[in-house]
Amino acid sequence: MTQSHPTSGPVADPACPVSLDLLGEVYRAEAEDLPELLATIAEPTRSKLAVYLYGKSHMHQLGLTVARACEREDLVRVAGEIGSVVYGQSRMKPARAPVQTEAAAPARKISLAGGPPKKISLGGSAAKGRSFD
To answer: How many CA atoms lie within 13 A of 101 on its CB side?
Structure first.
């Protein structure tokens, strides 16, 4: 079978400010190793990378992590008001999971039927004596 297009591997997104290899390194880096890796990226490029990642739904959190390594002025310079938003969100503390108390415990099921379930026939009088199970 002849292919109608070449399959030369992954193609870098032209909007991405870093090489595909460096993007992969940032994506795969452990949390404790990421600051050291980000320090090797020049500041304007790092800010562009933060905004780029922030704009990708599957890399939103990573974008905020990269933005923590950036100055507000640099983020604003590369992305305007969005840079300011990214900077602010990157400095917010993550929300804690709510502690479940007795008052917030799941409610018991309530039934308004008042008794055991009744059998209902969908076959009318002709259905008497037949089993539909």
So the answer is: 1
